[in-house]
Design goal:
By secondary structure, this protein is of the alpha/beta class. Helix content is 31%, strand content 32%. The chain has helices at residues 10-20, 26-44, 85-91, 138-149, 164-173, 201-206; strands at residues 4-6, 50-56, 61-67, 72-78, 96-97, 99-104, 111-117, 126-130, 133-134, 154-162, 178-184, 187-188, 194-195. Helix 1 (10-20) packs antiparallel against helix 2 (26-44) and helix 2 crosses helix 3. The structure holds 1-O-pyrophosphono-5-O-phosphono-alpha-D-ribofuranose (PRP) and uracil. Pathway: Pyrimidine metabolism; UMP biosynthesis via salvage pathway; UMP from uracil: step 1/1. Uracil binds at residues 194, 199-201. It catalyses: UMP + diphosphate = 5-phospho-alpha-D-ribose 1-diphosphate + uracil.
Length: 209
C-alpha cells in the first residue's frame, strides 16, 4: 500500500495558513503556492540517489556527492497544478514537465480529460503528479491512470490540501503511489469541496471568480 506523508514543517504550515485565508488576494496566493511547492519539493526529493565524484577545492581534492542523474518528470493537473510547477523547477531545473488536462464536472464530480502531453521517454522517468487539491480523488486517480496507460511506472502524488476521502480513493486505486500532503483536512462538503480547505484553487490562482 502506498504511504501517505503529511509535511509538518513550520514554514509549510505557516504559509498554508495564508493560502487558506479568504482575504489573501490572487498575487499573494500565487506566490505562496509557489513557495510551498518549493518547500515540498525539497522534502519529496529526500530519496534521490547520489553518486560520489572528485572535486578540486582551492585546498585539495575532495570526495563529494552529486545527484546520480535520475530522470524526473513533473505532471501538473491543469489548471491549478500549474501553480506548483515553477516552485518545483527552482529546485529541480532539469526535470521535464508534462501536462494532464482534467476538469471536474460540477454535477457528477467526475473528472473529464481534455489534454495530455507527456515527455517522450515516459518509461524511463520517475514522475511527480501535482495538484493543490485532492478532494474526491477522481482527478488524481484519472491523471495517474493516464500516465500509467502511457508507460509510467514510478509515480508520486503531491498536493497542498487533501480530504481523507480522496486519500482513500487514491490509495485504493493506486496502491503503488506514495502521497505527499501539506495538510490533511477534515472532510468534503456536499459540493465536493474540501472543508476547511482553501476554496477553488484554480479560481484563486487565476482570479477567475
Ligand atoms: C480542482 C483541483 C483538482 C480537482 C480535485 O480542479 O485543482 O484537479 O478539482 O477534485 P477531485 O479530487 O474531486 O477530483 P477543477 O476540476 O476545479 O479544475 P481547474 O483546475 O481547471 O479549475
Ligand atoms: N477543487 C478545489 O479547487 N477545491 C476543493 O475544495 C475541491 C476541489
Amino acid at each position: 500500500m502506498g504511504k501517505v506523508y503529511v509535511f509538518d514543517h513550520p514554514l509549510i504550515q505557516h504559509k498554508l495558513t495564508y493560502i487558506r485565508d479568504a482575504k489573501t488576494g490572487t498575487k499573494e496566493f500565487r506566490e505562496l503556492v509557489d513557495e510551498v511547492a518549493s518547500l515540498m519539493a525539497f522534502e519529496i526529493t529526500r530519496d534521490l540517489p547520489l553518486m560520489e565524484v572528485d572535486v578540486d577545492t582551492p585546498v585539495t581534492t575532495a570526495k563529494s556527492k552529486v545527484l546520480a542523474g535520475k530522470k524526473l518528470g513533473i505532471i501538473p493537473i491543469l489548471r491549478a497544478g500549474l501553480g506548483m510547477v515553477d516552485g518545483i523547477l527552482k529546485l529541480i531545473p532539469a526535470a521535464k514537465v508534462g501536462h494532464v488536462g482534467l476538469y471536474r464536472d460540477p454535477k457528477t464530480l467526475q473528472p473529464v480529460e481534455y489534454y495530455v502531453k507527456l515527455p517522450s521517454d515516459v518509461e524511463e522517468r520517475d514522475f511527480i503528479v501535482v495538484d493543490p487539491m485532492l478532494a474526491t480523488g477522481g482527478s488524481a486517480v484519472e491523471a495517474i491512470n493516464s500516465l500509467k496507460k502511457r508507460g509510467a511506472k514510478n509515480i508520486k502524488f503531491m498536493c497542498l490540501i487533501a480530504a481523507p476521502e480522496g486519500v482513500d480513493v487514491v490509495k485504493e486505486a493506486h496502491p503503488d503511489v506514495d502521497i505527499f500532503i501539506a495538510a490533511l483536512d477534515e472532510k468534503l462538503n456536499d459540493h465536493g469541496y474540501i472543508v476547511p480547505g482553501l476554496g477553488d484553487a484554480g479560481d484563486r490562482l487565476y482570479g477567475t471568480k
